[in-house]
Amino acid sequence: GAVVSQHPSRVICKSGTSVKIECRSLDFQATTMFWYRQFPKQSLMLMATSNEGSKATYEQGVEKDKFLINHASLTLSTLTVTSAHPEDSSFYICSASRTSGGRNEQFFGPGTRLTVL
Amino acid sequence: SQELEQSPQSLIVQEGKNLTINCTSSKTLYGLYWYKQKYGEGLIFLMMLQKGGEEKSHEKITAKLDEKKQQSSLHITASQPSHAGIYLCGAATNRDDKIIFGKGTRLHILP
């Protein structure tokens, strides 16, 4: 199956700093990548949809200036949490989409745990 | 907006017993996904259903999508400790691939 990686898997940073999370599709080109966040004991919440070479589409309530998304290639999307605060501490998961056999398939990364002190 | 209701929220089952998790959408679905997650880890893809009345099985897990494409069930037969985790249903309501998730069902298996 297709593999999606995320880096780093864990990051701890000080309040006010920025953190970049990478999402890579390792063995396929992803038409679209998605970013989710998950609070403890809650479901995944879609933050934004990212297409290569264009601006990301953010879900309602997600600050685009706070969560910068760059989709530089068909295999890499990055999420930068700017001026991070403790309330940004969460589990961030990306997914990458591809079309196979006429169906859209979506593969998820292992997630990045962000802790802001 | 699209809403997915999962039930039950939590489930405790004796090992060897069967169980069912339900997922109901407020809108007709383009696709319905089932994932499993160990807390703090990534998602494991289980199955995707797209056609009304479709049913798929993988090992001891069977998922069905109703004819109206608004309700899905995930059935586990003869549950094992390895089945424990959080089960999430995700729905795509059109072809833009965006998946919205339900709140999940926490499954505990008692030995």
Question: What does this molecule look like?
Answer:
The complex is a heterodimer of chains A (117) and B (111). By secondary structure, chain A is an all-beta fold. Chain A contains no helices and eleven strands. Chain A is globular and about 45 Å long. The termini of chain A are far apart. The mean pLDDT of chain A is 90. In chain B, strands 2, 4, 5, 9, 10 and 11 form a six-stranded mixed beta sheet that branches. Chain B has a five-stranded antiparallel beta sheet with strand order 1-3-8-7-6, with no helix packed on it. Chain B contains no helices and eleven strands. With 111 residues, chain B is mainly beta. Chain A binds chain B through residues 1, 6, 31-32, 34, 36, 41-46, 49, 91, 93, 95, 97, 103-111, 113, and chain B through 31, 33, 35, 39-43, 45, 48, 50, 88, 90, 92, 95-104.
Helix content of chain A: under 10%
Please tally the β strands of chain A and state the result.
Answer: 11
Oligomer: heterodimer
Query: Would you list the SSEs of chain B in sequence order as H and E?
Result: EEEEEEEEEEE
Low-confidence stretches of chain A: none
**Sheet with most strands of chain A:** 7 strands, mixed
Largest interface: A-B, 27 and 24 residues
Class of secondary structure makeup of chain B: mainly beta
Outline of chain A: globular
* Backbone shape of chain B: globular
Give a nutshell description of this structure:
Helices cover 0% and strands 57% of the residues of chain A. Chain A is mainly beta. In chain A, β7 (67-73) and β8 form a beta hairpin.
